[in-house]
Amino acid sequence: MMVQVGLIALLVVAYVIVSRILKSSITLLGQKKYANEVRITYVSKTLHLGFTAIFVLLICLVLGIGYGQLAIFFSSVFAVVGVALFAQWSILSNITASLIIFFSFPYRVGDWVKVVDKDDEILGQILEISTFHVIIQRLSNDVVTYPNSLILQKAVVRFDNREAALAMSQFQPSKTSVDKVEGESPSP
Q1: Buried (b) or exposed (e) across 126-138, using 16+ Cβ within 10 A?
Q2: Which of 27, 72, 142, 160 is deepest in the core (most CB within 10 A)?
Q3: Which run of H or E residues covers position 129?
Q4: For residue range 169-180, what is the model confidence (pLDDT) as tens digits?
Q5: Count of C-beta atoms within a 10 Å radius of residue 39
């Protein structure tokens, strides 16, 4: 009994220490990448939730709850969650993509980007990167919300400034086509 109490106390201390280290590490990484404070909070809470689930699992094992009982409990929980998320699989994939974007996405809020998509030109400035989508303001001031899972699947071109992005827009006339039209004389 004393061994269990000692192990639980040790786990609680380790949980508190690792939680603080995890939170400060995510905050430092977010500040280094100039991430929005709200975005840092989203990622921190998501990872903290996973870490807490591992902690609860370890406490259950220390208390002597058998693997079979835990397996039944977690399979029941995952079955319910799985059925609930099956219809909304994109939600789960967007949350996962959100974590990938936070840690390894080479673009950040304020960058001018073009998402290479054959159906539509998505060219503009990133306003926000949230848990489910990236918000891009187009050159025409339209706002596009692009799902995180899709932006990881598409090629994204980064521009240094608005003028460079404007030069690459397919909806803006190029200088040569304007000169050609001006140089032609009207037909009689």
Answers
A1: bbebbbbbbbbeb
A2: 27
A3: strand 122-129
A4: 766 544 443 343
A5: 20
